[in-house]
Amino acid sequence: MAAKARVVCTLIAALAMHMHIAATAAAASVESARDARIFELLDDDQDGSVSMMEFKNNQMLVFYILDRNKDLALTADETFLPTDVFASIAGADGKIDTIEFLDIVDSAFKQADTNHDGLLDRQEFGALLKRVRNR
Ligand SMILES: [Ca+2]
Ligand SMILES: [Ca+2]
Ligand SMILES: [Ca+2]
């Protein structure tokens, strides 16, 4: 589970990076501002919470961005994951396909949704990022 959470955080970070969100400084206030920006990005309809659908759609976008050769599978060099984490997700074929990817996204969402209402609010999302960062 810890590995999965790390993966998702990496993907969220990748999403932020690819959308040119400022990773300008490391100060705590900047960090929370950045978290808020990421949340707003994920919350497509801006209703203040991220639904499973919004989360998945956005993570699939990250998948396609990361998948440089567009073969619908991520190889180790296309991700920024530590080797052990990558290997645990990719399985025997050494690639992360869309099903394996969505499985990770799915479990990360459920793990983050601590009140089980099928939505991530700002607090739950912030807690997810914090938990992963403190590892
Ligand atoms: Ca929403
Ligand atoms: Ca695989
Ligand atoms: Ca929730």
Percent range for helical residues?
Answer: 55-70%
| Radius of gyration, CA atoms, in whole angstroms | 14 Å
Oligomer: single chain
Average pLDDT for all residues: 84
InterPro entries: EF-hand-dom_pair, EF_Hand_1_Ca_BS, EF_hand_dom
Organism: Azospirillum formosense
Protein name: EF-hand domain-containing protein
Keywords: Signal
Helix-strand blueprint:
Blueprint: H1 2-18, H2 28-42, E1 50-51, H3 52-66, E2 73-74, H4 83-90, E3 96-97, H5 98-112, E4 119-120, H6 122-133
Antiparallel strand pairs: 1-4, 2-3
Bound molecules: calcium ion (CA) (3 copies).
Verbal overview:
The structure is a single chain. The protein is built from six helices and four strands. The chain has a single domain, classed as Recoverin, domain 1, CATH 1.10.238.10. The model is unreliable at 20-26 (pLDDT under 50). The strands form two sheets. A two-stranded antiparallel sheet has the order 1-4. The chain has a two-stranded antiparallel ribbon with strand order 2-3. The chain has 135 residues and is mainly alpha-helical. It has helices spanning 2-18, 28-42, 52-66, 83-90, 98-112, 122-133, and strands spanning 50-51, 73-74, 96-97, 119-120. The radius of gyration is 14 Å and the shape is globular. Helix 1 packs across helix 5 (98-112). The structure holds calcium ion (3 copies). Residues 100-135 form the EF-hand domain. InterPro entries: EF-hand-dom_pair, EF_Hand_1_Ca_BS, EF_hand_dom.
Short description:
The chain is mainly alpha-helical. Helices cover 61% and strands 6% of the residues. It has helices at 2-18, 28-42, 52-66, 83-90, 98-112, 122-133; strands spanning 50-51, 73-74, 96-97, 119-120.
